[in-house]
């Protein structure tokens, strides 16, 4: 099953939200602050996070919970999740600094970047225009059932004025193409965008990943960036040796969300080139942990070398896709029309 694209709550998505909430409960310095992660958790998990925030015993309790998680899942899903979160945060911020003014959260799940990243939310501030900050249009794409839960959380926690830049695009991406629904929702194919596809590909099949990447390359403006996570295929087929992979794979399988797809890092540049994309970054979550956790004295926290974050840039657009994109530019709905057709978080 796909994280963030299913009828029932995803257990793996809730695990990642717990890991982000625990990281956010740490004192400074920490990798990030996600004030919304705990709201998506079941009551028992929220209680743990609330206790971790207590001034006295809270930090010790949080570290104890993290150590228990790391012992139970020695493959390192917790540290991998928080390290990849920070890495992707930085990649999104870099893309926006380079000129992208559209952010797509594909299979968004409980992702809160639209509301917590300064580079994204600053443009949503009504006073931002006076400070020369240009708004960022955010498209959160997810399964209708999952998105309904997410919207309720957002509407309870985020003021209406701080979410007017977000369009919720309800779609079952196992049945319809991501590029098609984005263009229909008002995404501008003539303006650069950054797409985040986090925690999803490892639950799909090869055809679905191929179709999504090819479709994005055909719909997005050249220079747009696609950030996605994937599992090293050698960890799945047994041709590589990775510590902790069996325990991690067993956990997600027991949750009904087994790993079903992977890529080989050495083959990734050619794989992407065949789909109109150029690889610009490929890092394991162990690499990310070394970059972000080690300077904080946390280099011993286990993170997976087989779980990876990649970034690719759109370099070409097939002729047929280019014609479709040009038509979409001409027919692109205004923000008001798009918001009416595709309900946004800003509506009541």
Automatic annotation (TrEMBL):
GO terms for molecular function: methyltransferase activity. GO terms for biological process: methylation. It comes from the Bacteria. It holds the Pfam family LCM. Keywords: Methyltransferase, S-adenosyl-L-methionine, Transferase. The keyword S-adenosyl-L-methionine applies. Its EC number is 2.1.1.-. InterPro entries: Ppm1/Ppm2/Tcmp, SAM-dependent_MTases_sf, SAM_mthyl_Trfase_ML2640-like. The keyword Transferase applies. Exhibits S-adenosyl-L-methionine-dependent methyltransferase activity. Belongs to the UPF0677 family. This is S-adenosyl-L-methionine-dependent methyltransferase.
């Amino acid at each position: 099953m796909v994280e963030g694209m299913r009828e029932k709550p995803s257990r793996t998505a809730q695990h990642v939200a717990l890991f982000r909430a625990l990281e956010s409960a740490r004192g400074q310095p920490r990798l990030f602050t996600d004030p919304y992660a705990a709201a998506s958790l079941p009551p028992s998990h929220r209680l743990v996070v609330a206790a971790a925030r207590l001034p006295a015993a809270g930090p010790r309790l949080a570290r104890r919970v993290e150590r228990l998680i790391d012992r139970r899942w020695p493959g390192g899903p917790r540290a991998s999740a928080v390290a990849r979160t920070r890495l992707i945060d930085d990649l999104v911020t870099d893309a926006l600094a380079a000129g992208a003014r559209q952010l797509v959260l594909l299979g968004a799940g409980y992702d809160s970047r639209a509301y917590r990243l300064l580079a994204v939310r600053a443009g949503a501030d009504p006073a931002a225009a006076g400070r020369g900050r240009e708004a960022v249009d955010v498209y959160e794409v997810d399964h209708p059932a999952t998105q309904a839960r997410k919207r309720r959380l957002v509407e309870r926690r985020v003021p209406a004025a701080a979410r007017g830049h977000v369009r919720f695009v309800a779609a079952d991406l196992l049945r319809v193409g991501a590029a098609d629904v984005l263009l229909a929702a008002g995404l501008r194919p003539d303006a650069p965008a950054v797409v985040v596809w986090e925690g999803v590909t490892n639950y799909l099949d090869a055809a679905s990943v191929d179709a999504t990447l090819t479709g994005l390359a055909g719909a997005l403006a050249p220079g747009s960036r696609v950030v996605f996570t994937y599992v090293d295929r050698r960890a799945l087929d047994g041709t590589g040796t990775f510590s902790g992979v069996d325990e991690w794979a067993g956990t997600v399988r027991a949750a009904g969300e087994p790993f079903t797809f992977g890529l080989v890092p050495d083959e990734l540049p050619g794989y992407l080139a065949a789909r109109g994309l150029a690889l610009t970054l490929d890092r394991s979550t162990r690499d990310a942990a070394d970059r972000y956790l080690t300077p904080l004295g946390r280099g011993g926290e286990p993170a997976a070398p087989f779980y990876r974050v990649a970034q690719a840039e759109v370099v070409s657009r097939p002729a047929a896709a280019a014609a479709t994109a040009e038509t979409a530019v001409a027919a692109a709905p205004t923000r008001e029309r798009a918001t009416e057709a595709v309900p946004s978080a800003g509506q009541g």
